[in-house]
């Protein structure tokens, strides 16, 4: 047993897949299908099917997917989009890119996800969409938020960048709202060998326009119907993702095994552990515990060779880039508390029981000493 437990172990995942991936990459190389191409087209179909949706559009990042989703939803300058301050900043970038304003609503203290009870009071005549995040792989309360969307005739756009394969009431997430946005950044549950993203939808017109937007706003080469982008997925990424998608269900099961083992072994510590809501089957992209002495515990883990990380140390409403929104500390107490106390422990399908026990024993040692 090695004493060191890395926070993330991408080489461990690659070892088992190397032959399959090498063959897929060689095929792409032989075809010279570097930008989009047949592997991307096949992956789009397979991933949409996996999500229970009709259309998948391969893009070059999750951030691009969110940006395109905002454009498709008709969000523009002066509009407002309700979202969460407890997420990776790219969720808000998409709103800012189209000249709209992120309107933050605090999160639920148990799941870190947008609190449906707080949404309606944030809706104004300028509200154009609701953009919650399935944070850490735990689905937000889809039905509660969809009911608000229907009542106020607002589209639901899911930031699913951390939640490939998570389930809400037994159904894989990705097709509940008007559109869902995924990231295939290498460390995600389904990760490319570089950057990648996808927009998933049941709306054929949205899918067609997303395909045009990613290709410089054109459907016929060198004829540009609107201002577009170079947001194409690379052929190599489609090839790698096609191989990896076949393993995603197994990997999700393995992530859940790790999470359940942590639950069991950490139950008698003072840590606040992640818990699944009754409607949720988390994909456990992250295993985030909380404690007021988070910084000391982080140092203790690192000194003892256990990797850990913070997701996220500062709530979006307090970031310098959003100072112009005028929020002060205390505006979103649950999100701020999460930022102060959160600590992400190693979690990946290949994490062995010995490694889990090592992480737990270092944590227990911390609490025994103080
Ligand atoms: C919640 C969330 N939204 C958006 C993104 C952006 O995805 P990408 O890094 O692929 O642009 C990420 C990925 O880091 C994310 O975790």
Write structural notes for this entry.
By secondary structure, this protein is of the alpha/beta class. The chain is 38% helix and 12% strand. The chain has 11 helices and 12 strands. It has helices spanning 10-31, 38-50, 62-72, 90-97, 142-152, 204-214, 235-245, 248-266, 294-303, 333-341, 353-369, and strands spanning 55-59, 80-83, 101-104, 127-131, 157-159, 167-168, 171-172, 179-183, 197-201, 280-281, 287-290, 342-345. The strands form 4 sheets. A 4-stranded mixed β-sheet has the order 1-9-8-5, sandwiched between helices. Strands 3-2-4 form a 3-stranded parallel β-sheet, with helices on one face. The protein is globular and about 70 Å long. The two termini are 27 Å apart. The mean pLDDT is 97.
A few lines on this structure:
The protein is built from eleven helices and twelve strands.
Radius of gyration: 21 Å
Count up the helices.
Answer: 11
Strand order in the largest sheet: 1-9-8-5
Inertia-based shape: globular
- Termini gap: 27 Å
**How helix-rich are the residues, as a percent range?**
25-40%
Low-confidence stretches: none
What is the average of the pLDDT values?
97
Q: List ligands, each type once.
A: pyridoxal-5'-phosphate
Number of strands: 12
Main pleated-sheet profile: 4 strands, mixed
Order of helices and strands: HHEHEHEEHEEEEEHHHEEHHEH
Structural class: alpha/beta
Kindly estimate the percentage of residues that lie in beta strands according to DSSP: 5-15%
């Amino acid at each position: 047993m090695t004493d060191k437990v890395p926070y993330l172990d991408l080489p461990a995942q690659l070892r088992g897949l190397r032959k399959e991936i090498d063959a897929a990459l060689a095929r792409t190389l032989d075809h010279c299908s570097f930008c989009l191409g047949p592997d991307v087209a096949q992956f789009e179909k397979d991933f949409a099917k996996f999500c229970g949706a009709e259309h998948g559009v391969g893009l070059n990042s999750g951030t691009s997917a969110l940006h395109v989703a905002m454009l498709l939803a008709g969000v523009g300058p002066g509009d407002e989009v309700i979202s969460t301050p407890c997420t990776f900043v790219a969720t808000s970038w998409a709103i800012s890119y189209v000249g709209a304003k992120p309107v933050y609503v605090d999160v639920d203290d148990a799941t870190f996800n947008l609190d449906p009870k707080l949404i309606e009071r944030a809706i104004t005549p300028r509200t154009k969409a609701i953009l919650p995040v399935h944070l850490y792989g735990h689905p937000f309360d889809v039905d509660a938020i969809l009911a608000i969307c229907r009542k106020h005739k607002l589209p639901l756009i899911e930031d699913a960048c951390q939640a490939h394969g998570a389930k809400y009431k037994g159904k894989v997430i990705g097709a509940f709202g008007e559109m869902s946005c995924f990231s295939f950044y290498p460390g995600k549950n389904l990760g490319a060998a570089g950057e990648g993203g996808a927009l998933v939808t049941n709306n054929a017109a949205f899918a067609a326009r997303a395909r045009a937007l990613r290709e410089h706003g054109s459907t016929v080469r060198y004829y540009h119907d609107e201002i577009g982008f170079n947001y194409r997925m690379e052929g190599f990424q489609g090839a790698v993702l096609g191989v990896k998608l076949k393993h995603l269900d197994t990997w999700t099961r393995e992530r859940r095994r790790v999470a359940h083992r942590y639950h069991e072994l950490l139950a008698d510590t003072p840590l606040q552990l992640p818990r699944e809501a009754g409607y949720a089957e988390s994909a456990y992209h992250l295993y985030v515990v909380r404690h007021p002495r988070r910084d000391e515990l982080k140092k203790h883990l690192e000194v003892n060779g256990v990797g850990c990380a913070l997701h996220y140390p500062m709530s979006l409403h307090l970031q310098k880039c959003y100072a112009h929104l005028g929020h002060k500390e205390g505006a979103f107490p649950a999100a701020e508390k999460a930022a102060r106390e959160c600590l992400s422990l190693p979690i990946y399908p290949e994490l062995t029981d010995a490694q889990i026990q090592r992480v737990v024993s270092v944590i227990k040692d911390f609490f025994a000493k103080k």
